[in-house]
């Protein structure tokens, strides 16, 4: 009730802070679950889920929190998101990429494996007509995806190699 004191929480502890020690910020975060997933902040993610923030909500790019957790390599966040009922594994963003595309492109084989175990589709192509397999930037991810696809497809250039030309390879 006293305006000279504000309630604050840091590292799981809540207490009172003199109001002249902090500045009020009017900015808000449009997609807090996405931000928690991007940053790998498990406690913030739990807080969002406890407050029933929609797990399949899309940001401006059409991406889900699961996509951003996979893009950032935050396996603990991915696992926490999988505890939510009806989580959408195969949502494609505006570029056509799925969480599996992101994990493969960033080279997170442990997350690729987890997504595949949960039933992520390997046949979805992004706007560049690439499968997650085509986006794989390391052998471990490519091997997992190839095994799941059950094909003998020849691996194409990785996404990273697509952007290198002879001048850049020096």
TrEMBL record:
It comes from the Eukaryota. One of its GO terms (biological process) is signal transduction. Keywords: ANK repeat, Cytoplasm, Repeat, SH3 domain. InterPro entries: Ankyrin_rpt, Ankyrin_rpt-contain_sf, SH3-like_dom_sf, SH3_domain. It is found in: Cytoplasm. Residues 1-27 form the SH3 domain. One of its GO terms (cellular component) is cytoplasm. ANK repeats lie at residues 95-127. SUPFAM superfamilies: Ankyrin repeat, SH3-domain. Its main location: cytoplasm. It holds the Pfam family SH3_2. Induces bone resorption, acting probably through a signaling cascade which results in the secretion of factor(s) enhancing osteoclast formation and activity. This is Osteoclast-stimulating factor 1. The gene is OSTF1.
């Amino acid at each position: 009730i006293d305006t000279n004191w504000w309630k604050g929480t840091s590292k799981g502890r809540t207490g009172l802070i003199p109001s002249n020690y902090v500045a009020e910020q009017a900015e808000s975060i449009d997609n807090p679950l996405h931000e928690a997933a991007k940053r790998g902040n498990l406690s913030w993610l739990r807080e969002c889920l406890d407050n029933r923030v929609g797990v399949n909500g899309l940001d401006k790019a059409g991406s889900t929190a699961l996509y951003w957790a996979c893009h950032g390599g935050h396996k603990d966040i991915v696992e926490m998101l999988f505890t939510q009922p009806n989580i959408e594994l195969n949502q494609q963003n505006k570029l056509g990429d799925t969480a599996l595309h992101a994990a493969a492109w960033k080279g997170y084989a442990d997350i690729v494996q987890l997504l595949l175990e949960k039933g992520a589709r390997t046949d979805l192509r992004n706007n560049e007509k690439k499968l997650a397999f085509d986006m794989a930037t390391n052998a471990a991810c490519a091997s997992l995806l190839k095994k799941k696809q059950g094909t003998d497809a020849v691996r194409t250039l990785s996404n990273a190699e697509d952007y290198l030309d002879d001048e850049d390879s020096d």
